[in-house]
Amino acid sequence: MMGIVFEHSHIVQAPMYNTLGATITEAGVIQFFKFSTVAFFLIGGFLINHKFQEYSAGQYLKNRFKNTVRPWLFWMFVFIAITMLDRWVAHIKGSDRDLMFSDFSAYISDFVYRILFFSPYWFILNFLICITLLLIFKKYLYKYWLGIFFGIISLVYSVNLYFNWFETTHTSALFGFVFYLWLGVYLNKYYTAVMTFVKDTRWTIWVLLLVLTFALGIWESVYLIKLGSKDAYNTLRISNIIYSFVGFGVLLKIGNIKILDRLKPRETTFGIYLVHSIVIERVLPLIFQPLKLDVQHYNVWENTALLILRFIIAYSISYLLSALIIKTKMKWTVGQ
Questions:
Q1: Between the CA atoms of 218, 222, 228 and 233, what dihedral angle is there, to the nearest 10 degrees?
Q2: Is 289 exposed, middle or buried (0-12, 13-18, 19+ CB in 10 A)?
Q3: What are the counts of helices (DSSP H) followed by strands (DSSP E) for the chain?
């Protein structure tokens, strides 16, 4: 979740630099946490495998609605309401004359569409679609051919980055992540064998693989930029998929981190995800816009420092909000 918030805390639209050195640096900064989204689905599959066996499809989806869909709908509504309030205040001050006041129905339909399909909230819907697909194929859940089928679908999105057959943004990859959820389920079924392999593989091999796949991810991004791609840092790049698998293995190798247990990740993580978009979109501008930062003319190191600062602020506020909410009667809004 730290990685996901970091990805969303950017202040400039990448890629934006003209020199090779700056582009490689930018690619490295972005690539570092780029395993997070694929790992998110792998971990999701790990955690839901036993639930699939304990509950019927209907019972499982009912529980999902209560613990996932309700909080998701609630925070999307909050996001929309806060944004509309912001536009209203701007209008009252005479500094805004947008579509909200000339054609409200067109404004709200377009805004909801963008939040639903082109914001971090899309991944909750995508996650639910992936789960539903696995439930439909529950009878064949542990068959190799099912994984191959879903894997091919994911690779279509990877290859599409080079040919642009359709929209490339990972937020529009409707079925692009179902393979990783399936793989998490499959790996959890053979948990003992997987953990034996992870533990028996030496740290030097894991570190070497992580460095090599990290470098490969940077190379592919730079190559896509040279090809003129506008989505060169896409999560579903083949190199990033491999990097994500290695990153997931490293997380399993590391195991429990006691100092992070104090943050109560199983209780606060979903809340952080639900509120961090609001914090980034509505709170961070209140901090950074008055500074009048000329980020388009800053060098890669200055913008990286800003990215790290924005991440620290966004994650800290999101975590504190989530930690406070779980202590109140409103804890259902973060899935508790």
A1: 20
A2: exposed
A3: 17, 0
CA distance 334 to 66: 11
Q: Which own/partner contact pairs does 250-256 have at CB distance under 8 Å and 24+ positions apart?
A: 250/206, 250/210, 251/39, 252/194, 252/195, 252/198, 253/198, 253/199, 253/201, 253/203, 253/206
Q: What is the pLDDT of residues 9-27, one digit of tens each?
A: 998 888 888 899 999 999 9
Amino acid at 332: W
The rounded distance, in Å, linking the Cα atoms of 153 and 90 is: 44
Q: What is the pLDDT of residues 87-116, one digit of tens each?
A: 787 767 766 556 666 677 777 888 888 888
pTM greater than 0.85 (yes/no): yes
The secondary structure element, H or E, covering residue 320 is helix 300-325
Residue 27 contacts residue 233 (beta carbons within 8 Å): yes
